Amino acid sequence: MSAPTGRITAVDTYDIRFPTSRELDGSDAMNPDPDYSAAYVVLRTEGGGPEGHGFTFTIGRGNDVQVAAVDALRDHVVGRSVAGLCADPGSLYRDLIGDSQLRWLGPEKGVMHMAIGAVVNAVWDLAARCEGKPLWRLLADADPAWLVSQIDFRYLTDALTPEEALALLSKGKQGAAGRTAELLRRGYPAYTTSPGWLGYSDEKLTRLARQAVAEGFTQIKLKVGADLDDDIRRCRAARAAVGPGIRMAVDANQRWDVGEAVAWTKALAEFDPYWIEEPTSPDDVLGHAAVRRGVHPVKVATGEHVQNRVVFKQLLQAGAVDVLQLDAARVAGVNENLAILLLAAKFGVPVCPHAGGVGLCELVQHLSMFDYVALTGTTEDRVIEYVDHLHQHFLDPVVITDGHYRAPASPGFSSAMHRASIDAYTYPHGTFWAADAASGEPGTDTEVHA
Amino acid sequence: MSAPTGRITAVDTYDIRFPTSRELDGSDAMNPDPDYSAAYVVLRTEGGGPEGHGFTFTIGRGNDVQVAAVDALRDHVVGRSVAGLCADPGSLYRDLIGDSQLRWLGPEKGVMHMAIGAVVNAVWDLAARCEGKPLWRLLADADPAWLVSQIDFRYLTDALTPEEALALLSKGKQGAAGRTAELLRRGYPAYTTSPGWLGYSDEKLTRLARQAVAEGFTQIKLKVGADLDDDIRRCRAARAAVGPGIRMAVDANQRWDVGEAVAWTKALAEFDPYWIEEPTSPDDVLGHAAVRRGVHPVKVATGEHVQNRVVFKQLLQAGAVDVLQLDAARVAGVNENLAILLLAAKFGVPVCPHAGGVGLCELVQHLSMFDYVALTGTTEDRVIEYVDHLHQHFLDPVVITDGHYRAPASPGFSSAMHRASIDAYTYPHGTFWAADAASGEPGTDTEVHA
């Protein structure tokens, strides 16, 4: 544990891209060829003290725009007291979302908002390192009133007041020690998307689905939405592979209009899909409510592209979702996700976070574990998404045992990448990309031995 | 008229900023010190043929991020056939919003979406120049089926189908010749925000309000939301200055939560506000619906920060607005605004566009004039915002006579700035900013004699 001293001396940014499109990892109905990428941020401190690491996940082109957006925040961060930031990350969060000129580019959505998320998450990583705790534990140990102080309630008070948040967190503390022990013993339930990418053959899908069950997962997910006949064939194959006792979610990645979402989901009903994910635009609160009415008893899930707490609030107010899929890096970091977890708790909707991408599993596990230990107190009907690629680039990668995320023990937010990975995959001049360009042949090696 | 030939050879971008914060022009409860700026785009064509000009409006910091976002679109544009673009601007619009990697940064919102709007509007400027018509006339003369082909109906069909759009546009054509003559004779009604900036003294407010009425305006607007006592005093002074027959809108620029919006608006009711604008988050469809129920008979208006057609659709579906304030440069350009105009027409909600900023008046007048001539056929309860600064930087500035926008006659979208203005205000190396930095004293001269 390092006592926080000194000031932030630099905000270093890196445009990191992995050539995942060459293997069709991550392919779905809207994203046929993603190159999983990260606009990566390192907060440096005086005298080589602890660093803070954070990032925005993107799928390739535009990662440079994300880096430019983080660069535009630098003046808000450099020179800040490390002790002040660690004591109150919310002070920076509020300054960033409140910058009256930058706010015009949102407000609180898209490129600028995700850039704020990267910086804010880096601050929480720094705070947890300084505290000598994994982030989930820092949050679970925190005073409820302090957690409430980390939230911006603007635009929320018609659904959640600071007083209600305090009551939920105070109640959540009861029995936390027992749940911490249980979490350390058992981990947090996961489900896996790895079998179901749209670009995979039926053979690969079936093999990976069986393997997932053998590894202890009780839920898998399939991408759908490009072609109905293909979806029926793939769902049939997957259901046959896993048997009736395994939950099988399907994910349309925003491919449909409202009417189409209802019709297509009903056409898959015979395979007993557990939820339909992203049936339509993530902006369409009323549309999701209509889809939910239309596809019952199939559940409706969304969230990975939901831009901020205001839209999550409405999804809950409108009864538009059965499952809330927050993302660690889409919104403005831990502070905004605390608000979203509290909204979900208030409305009694389970949170099953989006993960995958680059490092999203590493980040989001901390939020769900905090939620279990010190907010909702349950993992019932709650699972964190798991995708099995790119973890090797992280210093503290997620560990999955018997279908559960193990609780991280290292201080921080599990957000730091290996220096060798950064050096290799920085675009376009890192060693991988430079060699790739020089060879004239696309490579697919995403393994880095760091 | 130049026959469109050849290809797009370059997409040139400029970070243009005006030091408006030094005079408190444009100040409001959320934006105390804007430096009105434009991320400006010029499409160059082969052989020095006609150019296309477009831009995103911002209020200062972050304009560089907007420029980076336009730069990220360049590969989609360079090399395209000019004739192909002019015949079907929608082909580029769909490619840009559909780029599967860039889409991750939205989808269809914030920095990337506004950048797409700048490029798409530049294409329409080019198309109108090639056609030898002002844009409003190109749109009003167009075949309804072609206009329908320019719209992306994804996520809209639960509220508006292509068939309904075609019917609205076909009906809108009836009597268009007479309305064109009337538009050329009388212009399109305007209202003015120039008296009501929050940073202005009561004396300046009163003087400018009287002047607005003397100039023929029948509606003014005041910024509110920072301090209730101040708002009461300013509304009283403005109402006394203009008398009871003039509409007086108030604008909170997203300052409030739902409950506060209702209470504050009611506290101003004795001054007979015509509408309350942006009472809360532009993302909060359900919140606006609640505010509208609470403040009746004061109307609710929003739109300048509404991110895309999906949110506008919901504002209409939920009965959340009395007045729809589209912006020419917030969404993905003319194509998306055609969808928004059609949605408003379908739901019978008047469109009173947001303008001001840099060049927003110049752009948006074309959309309202098309709406009048060839879609809704009326200007009843419809007014375009007018703000009286920065027009001198445009080659074809708006002309206001007796409280009306005159119909533009020059070919194009009125979007081109003077070369001298671009050279002076390009940040940070243009002649104005270089001299400003060298002098050590902030200047306020925003006049450029081009």
Automatic annotation (TrEMBL), chains A, B:
Annotated Mandelate racemase/muconate lactonizing enzyme C-terminal domain ranges read 202-298
Enzyme Commission (EC) number: 4.2.1.68
Q: Which reaction does it catalyse?
A: L-fuconate = 2-dehydro-3-deoxy-L-fuconate + H2O
Q: Where is the signal peptide?
A: none
Q: Which GO terms describe its biological process?
A: carbohydrate catabolic process
Report keywords, A-Z. Lyase, Magnesium, Metal-binding
Tell me the enzyme class: lyase
Q: Does the keyword Repeat apply?
A: no
Protein name as it appears in the record? L-fuconate dehydratase
Q: Which organism is it from?
A: Streptomyces fungicidicus
